[in-house]
Write a structure and sequence with these properties.
Length: 123
Amino acid sequence: MIDAPELPAWAALLTAFLVLAGAIITLIGSIGLLRLKDFYQRVHAPTLGATLGAGGILIASIVCFSVLQTRPVIHEILIAVFLTITTPVGLMLLGRAALYRDRYAARKDVPPESRTASTHEFD
């Protein structure tokens, strides 16, 4: 058998609810990836789903292990900070690369580059 300490009922219920909520939000983001029609719409659903879903799971982990160890556990906060920083940056880089690719291919459904958004504004 496993020699693990027992989690109080309130903490177990809260942890289970947060894990389930995080998993459902992540699932909704994954379904959005499948259902949406083009790349620009598809990148938003999994990005938001992954960030919010992982947030719920991380909060559940904080509750569970803080109760078991009788002290606050902050490792999960670092994971949340890194996830919150890297996920939107990855979304932005993927979006810009796709926009560059589509403009280079001269696709008609891509908006033209605006002068105010370019880097040559202050030249």
